[in-house]
């Protein structure tokens, strides 16, 4: 059984603030260790279920967060950026399941560190006119490849968002939102035991993945800056909805790939911290 783990950071056990998840933050090093321990718990669960190969993609920010020297030694780590497919770099239809560890809810939702990819620079996103964020786009891309999203961990808002996309996703809330920068935290040992058990149970009865599909979808993004939207119109296939909103249509994996280019354009044009 081949398992792919996409690891974000905002939904990791114990983390609630930008200083926990951004390089240079006063608690970032502790956040890195916590992120690695959550991933290791998922790895233990996958091994209990019979996984023979596990690939972990460091999918947060600089994508150099996991402490490789304390990561489970028997996994392959995809680290660094840029990556063509970002949070799902290296995911192919050859994997039996996708696990999302440390995920967060989309922009505008009452969730811990909620945002969509770029903090305030992205105000809203829609996938086929349905509000979406990282969870929705990752889920759609995996489904198009025929890989089921089996487990997601994060705060309770992220877990609810995941099951709204697919009620068969097993979720583990490691904290409960009080505000965007505050949470009721599960004890570390309890949260990681729950991650391990949820993964082991979910993978013990493998889900039948969706059939790989070449069906297209439409991604719509509203930016804070009209300059970003205007510049993106120079990319073939990108059309304007209004001065700050653009859209494109393609298969979900191709949209994910193109969206990575959109974010690099936005980064070049703006200089806004993600959680201000």
Walk me through what this model shows.
This is M55 family metallopeptidase. It comes from Catenulispora yoronensis. Pfam families: Peptidase_M55 (PF04951). There is one protein chain. The protein is an alpha/beta fold. The chain folds into 2 domains: 2-204, Dipeptide transport protein (Rossmann fold), CATH 3.40.50.10780; 217-269, no CATH class. 32% of the residues lie in helices and 25% in strands. It has 7 helices and 12 strands. It has a 7-stranded mixed β-sheet, sandwiched between helices. A hairpin with a 2-residue loop joins strand 8 and strand 9. Helix 2 runs parallel beside helix 5 (188-204), helix 3 (134-145) runs antiparallel to helix 7 and helix 6 (226-232) crosses helix 7. The longest helix is centred in the N-terminal third of the chain and has 21 residues, at 28-48. The N and C termini lie far apart (42 Å). The model has no long low-confidence stretch (mean pLDDT 95).
Topology readout:
Layout: E1 2-7, H1 18-21, H2 28-48, E2 53-58, E3 76-78, E4 97-103, E5 122-127, E6 130-131, H3 134-145, E7 149-155, H4 156-165, E8 170-179, E9 182-185, H5 188-204, E10 217-223, H6 226-232, E11 239-242, E12 245-250, H7 252-269
Helix pairs in contact: 2-5, 3-7, 6-7
Strand pairing plus helix content: what structural class? alpha/beta
Side-by-side strand order of the widest sheet:
3-2-1-4-7-8-9
Distance between the termini: 42 Å
Helix share of residues? 25-40%
User: Strand content of the residues, in percent?
Assistant: 15-25%
Our count of helices gives: 7
In the CATH hierarchy, the third-tier topology of the largest domain is known as Rossmann fold
What is the mean predicted local confidence, pLDDT? 95
Based on Cα principal axes, name the global outline.
Answer: globular
Number of domains: 2
CATH superfamily of the largest domain: Dipeptide transport protein
How many strand elements?
12
Compute the CA-based radius of gyration: 18 Å
InterPro entries: DppA_N, Peptidase_M55, Peptidase_M55_sf
Protein name: M55 family metallopeptidase
Organism: Catenulispora yoronensis
Pfam families: Peptidase_M55
């Amino acid at each position: 059984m081949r398992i792919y783990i996409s690891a974000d950071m905002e939904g990791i056990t114990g983390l609630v603030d930008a200083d926990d998840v951004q390089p240079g933050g006063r608690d970032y090093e502790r956040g890195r260790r916590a992120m690695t321990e959550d991933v290791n718990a998922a790895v233990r669960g996958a091994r209990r279920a019979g996984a023979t190969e596990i690939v972990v993609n460091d999918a947060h920010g600089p994508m150099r967060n996991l402490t490789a020297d304390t990561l489970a030694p028997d996994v392959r780590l995809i680290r660094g950026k840029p990556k063509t497919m970002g949070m799902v770099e290296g995911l192919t239809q050859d994997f039996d399941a996708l696990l999302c560890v440390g995920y967060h809810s989309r922009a505008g939702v009452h969730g811990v560190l909620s945002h969509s990819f770029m903090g305030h620079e992205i105000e809203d996103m829609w996938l086929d006119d349905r509000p979406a964020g990282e969870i929705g786009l990752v889920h759609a891309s995996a489904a198009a490849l025929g890989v089921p999203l089996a487990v997601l961990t994060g705060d309770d808002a992220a877990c609810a968002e995941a099951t709204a996309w697919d009620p068969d996703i097993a979720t583990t809330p490691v904290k409960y939102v009080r505000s965007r920068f505050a949470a009721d935290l599960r004890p570390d040992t309890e949260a990681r035991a729950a991650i391990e058990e949820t993964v082991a149970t979910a993978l013990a009865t493998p889900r039948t993945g969706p059939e790989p599909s070449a069906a297209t979808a439409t991604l719509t993004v509203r930016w804070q800056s009209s300059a970003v939207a205007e510049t993106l119109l120079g990319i073939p296939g990108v059309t304007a909805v209004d001065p700050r909103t653009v859209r494109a249509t393609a298969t979900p994996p191709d949209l994910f790939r193109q969206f990575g280019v959109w974010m690099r354009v936005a980064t070049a044009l703006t200089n806004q911290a993600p959680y201000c």
